[in-house]
Design a protein that fits this description.
By secondary structure, the protein is mainly beta. It is built from one helix and 13 strands; from the N terminus they run αβββββββββββββ. The chain has one domain: OMPT-like (Lipocalin, Beta Barrel), CATH 2.40.128.90. Strands 1-4-5-7-8-9-10-11-12-13 form a ten-stranded antiparallel barrel. A hairpin with a 3-residue loop joins strand 2 and strand 3.
Length: 248
């Protein structure tokens, strides 16, 4: 990010922070089950349509006045199996952590935020790539970087309609490839980006509980950080979800 952009972002945050604070606080935790709809996984040698496996998304938030810290994550509990035409049976496991610091306007309808996205992926291939003489292969990558967010929250009937858009323009990491036949491990730097959009309706169902119905769109793309920038991974999916929030 350039110095001018840093100054612009800092000025925006200061302007929001200078608005009259709302003297109250709240905290919540939540769980949503989101089946993968229309999911696509691209790697260097194939494109796979992901099966509609329900993935659990965890979330938590804490707010004081017009300041809020919110986080959501996909724990590494679900392994997605598929078959690769070149490398046979494949097991793909993802985990995501996304934490954001938000500042709301005085009406608490619009917020801007900045945070961190951490993306972990482990893939096991039954057949290794051409760098090995035989056996299987396991690839592991962790890629992370800053993201920026705009969020809107509008009262609607007995609840609220919420939407957010996050963009992580630069995610950096390294893919590590290990081989079962003893071939030396490979270390390939990666550079990626991610778009994350979310729309949901939060409906009060009790004094300390809300029901959540919505849809999230995630599009993550990474390329190897070398001449030509060949594709490393792309994961894109719609995640319709239903879950609950518990107020603490």
């Amino acid at each position: 990010m350039t110095f001018a952009r840093c100054c612009a972002l800092a000025g925006m945050l200061v302007a929001f922070a200078a608005a009259p604070a709302l003297a109250d606080s709240a905290a919540s935790i939540g769980l949503t089950l989101s089946p993968i709809a229309g999911g696509v996984h691209d790697s260097f040698n194939d494109t796979i349509r992901l099966p509609p496996i329900p993935v659990p998304l965890l979330e938590a938030s804490a707010r004081t006045s017009n300041f809020e810290i919110t986080a959501y994550g996909l724990p590494p509990l679900v392994s997605i199996p598929y078959t690769n035409a070149v490398q046979g049976s494949v097991a793909l496991r993802l985990s995501i952590f996304d934490g954001t610091f938000r500042i709301w306007d005085p009406s608490r309808h619009v917020a801007v935020g900045v945070g961190e996205t951490v993306y972990n992926q482990t893939t096991h291939y039954a057949t290794a790539d051409s760098f090995a003489t035989g056996g299987g292969e396991r690839q592991y990558s962790r890629i992370a970087g800053a993201h920026y967010e705009v969020a809107v929250r509008i009262p609607f009937r007995a609840g609220t309609l919420e939407t957010s858009l996050r963009y992580a323009p630069v995610l950096l990491g390294t893919q590590v490839s290990t081989y079962e036949d003893g071939t030396p491990s490979r270390f390939d730097p990666e550079r990626g980006e991610q778009i994350d959009g979310n729309v949901r309706y939060v409906h009060h169902v009790g004094p300390h509980m809300d029901a959540v119905l919505g849809v999230r769109y995630v599009n993550f793309t990474a390329a190897y950080d070398r001449p030509g920038h060949p594709l490393s991974d792309r994961n894109a999916a719609l995640l319709p979800g239903f879950g609950y929030l518990w107020h603490l």
